[in-house]
């Protein structure tokens, strides 16, 4: 009788614990495809246009230097057979000087563009994250995950919030 009581008690406890853990795991989960969100929101095109405008003059200067380098290199190929050694050396030095100038001006510009891009992306990311939080709270989601970092999810049990996020961020 005592053994039967212990067995029944253990069985009831196990059933209660499984029921509790199953209900604890049964929560509402959403997923967001961040790449899709970034591609579809109008703020990204606006940032791209803004950065193009901001750095247009300096980019044109670099493109001019690149064009000059190509011109001089083609000139060297065409005319090197008829050039004296001194002319060849002078033209090579001129091309190398232009390449050095291109590098000296190009690297800082690239770095500055990256810094500005990251600043603008951080602003947009803040808006996206706050929007995800608002949508999750309104939809009473217990958890929202990023699709890129999730190995597997069951689409029948997980709600894709990406389009809602795109719509909400686009209105801001």
What does this structure look like?
The protein has 172 residues and is mainly α. It has one domain: 2-Layer Sandwich (Protein Binding, DinI Protein, Chain A). Helices cover 77% and strands 6% of the residues. The chain contains five helices and three strands, in the order αβαααββα. Helix 3 runs antiparallel to helix 4. The longest helix is centred in the middle third of the chain and has 54 residues, at 85-138. The radius of gyration is 31 Å and the shape is elongated. 8% of the residues are buried. Belongs to the Skp family.
Widest sheet, order of strands: 2-1-3
Beta-strand content: 5-15%
CATH homologous superfamily caption: Skp domain
Low-pLDDT segments: 1-24
The CATH first-level class comes to Alpha Beta
Query: Per CATH, what is the topology?
Result: Protein Binding, DinI Protein, Chain A
**Helix-strand pattern, N to C?**
HEHHHEEH
**Total domain modules:** 1
User: Could you say what the CATH architecture is?
Assistant: 2-Layer Sandwich
Structural class: mainly alpha
Q: Tell me, what's the shape?
A: elongated
Using only C-alpha atoms, the radius of gyration works out to 31 Å
- State the share of residues found in helices, binned by percent: over 70%
Helical segment tally?
5
Largest sheet: 3 strands, parallel
Q: Give the tally of β-strands.
A: 3
Q: State mean pLDDT (0 to 100 scale).
A: 84
What kind of assembly state do the chains in view correspond to? single chain
Q: What is the rounded distance between the termini? A: 70 Å
Family: Belongs to the Skp family.
Signal peptide: 1-26
GO cellular component, one term: cytosol
Keywords: Signal
